[in-house]
Amino acid sequence: MGPRLKLGSRLVGSWEALLVAACVTGTAVWTILGTTAGLPATLLAGLPVAWAAAFALAWHRMRRAPAPRFIFHRHAAVGLAMAVLLAQTTGARSPVVLDVWAIASAAGLAVGRVGCHRGGCCAGRPARIGPRYPMLGGDRHLPVQLLESAWCLTLAVAACACQDLFTPGVTGIAVICAYVMVRVPLQRLRQGTPHS
After folding, report:
1. Which end of the chain offers a freer environment for a tag, N or C, measured as fewer CB atoms within 10 Å?
2. Quick one: which of 36, 148, 155 has its CA closest to 102?
3. Residue 194 resides in a domain
4. Helices 94-119 & 14-36 angle (0-180, nearest 10)
């Protein structure tokens, strides 16, 4: 999907490549912060495996759909549920897991939304500024994907810097709430209906 990127001698869709990069980024941040926080190794290894399984299932379903869509909030909810379940089974403190999960998710989404921008999915309404997408009629569209990407990067960096200042769990809740506070207005700026 979207413009192609050259990786070595192979051309791959930029949306797919950046979605994989987002997963790698999120997993790397999860592993680094989780190790620093002293989370159990089984939890640190288990969640990326669960993410990969959920992603493979979603990818399989998307390939069979007439209009493939990757709906982030559904996968985020599943990821959070898996993180809490794994925290319970490994004896890790759920508030600490929530903090690490939220920061890792924001970092991964910051990369993933660049893929949405390049591929033209989740595009903003027609506007005087922004990219042109041939499949959307060639008009310019608000770059809402890049605005969300920048917001997620800001959240991830700020949360990393402030994480030790708060009681465990507060950072994770703050990241989720701050993300939603910006995501909802950006959703209304997308092309089509506000809930598309």
Report:
1. C
2. 155
3. no
4. 160
Q: Write the pLDDT tens digit of every residue in 83-127.
A: 888 888 888 999 999 999 999 999 999 999 998 888 888 889 999
In a domain, 64, yes or no: yes
Q: Which helix (H) or strand (E) element contains residue 4? A: strand 4-7
The span from the CA of 36 to the CA of 46, in Å, is 17
Q: Packing angle between helix 144-162 and helix 94-119, nearest 10 degrees?
A: 150
| Number of independent structural domains in the chain | 1
Could you give the CA distance from residue 10 to residue 132 in angstroms, rounded to a whole number? 25
Range of the domain at 106: 4-188
Burial 145-155 (b: 16+ CB within 10 A, else e): bbbbbebbbeb
Does residue 193 form part of some domain?
no
Residue 195 lies in a domain: no
What six digits make up the tokens of 121?
A: 């999915």
Structure-token pair, residue 139: 């008009």
